[in-house]
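Protein Entry — a single chain follows
Fields — amino acid sequence, structure tokens
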Amino acid sequence: MRHSSLINGEWTAGSPVPNINPSDLADVIGEYDHASLDQAADAVASARQAFPAWSMSPVQARSQMLETVGLEILARKTELADLLAREEGKTLADALGEVVRAGQIFKFFAGEAVRIHGESLSSTRPGLEVQVTREPLGVITLVTPWNFPIAIPAWKVAPALAYGNCVILKPAELTPGCAWALADIIQRAGFPPGVFNLIMGSGSRLGPKLMAPGVDAVSFTGSVQVGGAILALAAENRLKVQLEMGGKNPLLVLDDADLDLAARVAFDGAYIATGQRCTASSRLIVQDSVYDAFLARLTGILNAQTVDDARKPGVTIGPVVDASQLAADLDYVEVARNEGGRIVTGGERLQRGTAGFYMDPALIADTTPAMRINREEVFGPVASVVRVKDYEEGLSLANDTEFGLCAGICTTSLKHASHFRRAAQAGMVMVNLPTAGVDYHVPFGGRKGSSYGPREQGAYAAEFYTTVKTHYINAG
């Protein structure tokens, strides 16, 4: 099946590129058209033209359209989950959870559309009235990653539309299928032409056109390297910017922790979704007195996993998303081995009944903070373990990173849990929970090199997707 870009309410053909199933390289999901530079410019122009009317549209109309999108996503959750698992490699259970979350996000922002708050304040000057309102920004380019191919587009698109903006969505090249399905649902929900546009293709090629004059803001989720390039171009063109980038998230396990729970928390955080999450617990920091016992429990969990086709019953870990990501994951394991890390289990490519990008989840023990495996984001089914003598050393090591997205602790000590929640240099903190796994109605984002600009999700999304206007009225 041929899938085109959506520009000004019309499906517009481009250059077809096959979308390949990472569980079965012989399975072509469909052909998805890469847009031309002229088509990207047309999308910007159509959004610009649609903005004046859409920005003034009744909030009830916006709310109803967003509700319609959310309801269709939920009604088609099984079908969409199968598509997601097929093109990204998540297991069906994980894919279903992501699709449901996307539907819930649209329903949440259907409510937020009619709850756009302002303020009425007393002036310091007699006879004057002051009001503060929020207004839409304008045209917003949304650049989304391959690892959450429907949830992340949802949590960017839904607030952008709810607050009266027009949108150009540019999804990742590796997973265009879910974005196209979402665009099709949005198109049929009644949004006027130009309000929502879908442009598929290479970000490096299309990016400058999608951040050219006529665009007011850009929201990006992806790598630090690409985020830096987007920030530079946005500064040049004076665009408002929101960046969600990498993570090197620590999970600190203390000697008073429930070790069975801690091992399960570590596994869920580090390996579910093949470890391909910016919130993954890639650094496991374990107190010396329980180090060996913790390793034994986590190894037992890993050895019980089934790695295979993401859509097969009973599979718990699917493939890595593509050949280049698999090669990078395997290279990190080898580098860690050469630097002195001990491969407890996994770390090798696997062969299954179909040709795919399968990897045995790797657990690397006896690592040190200076090793590359503990400094750089791997983005695969790989976790490293570092030994520390006490809580203070563990906290210091947890904060010893250029990133600051998530941090977790496993402990039964209220004292240590409370201190860690305050002292962890991260935007999100988990206590006796995996670092991966967040709610859709609360803010998402980090510190340091992980994030730039206002938070995403929940009511905090208004900080990015609106601009504040202060009104002074002479009431006399």
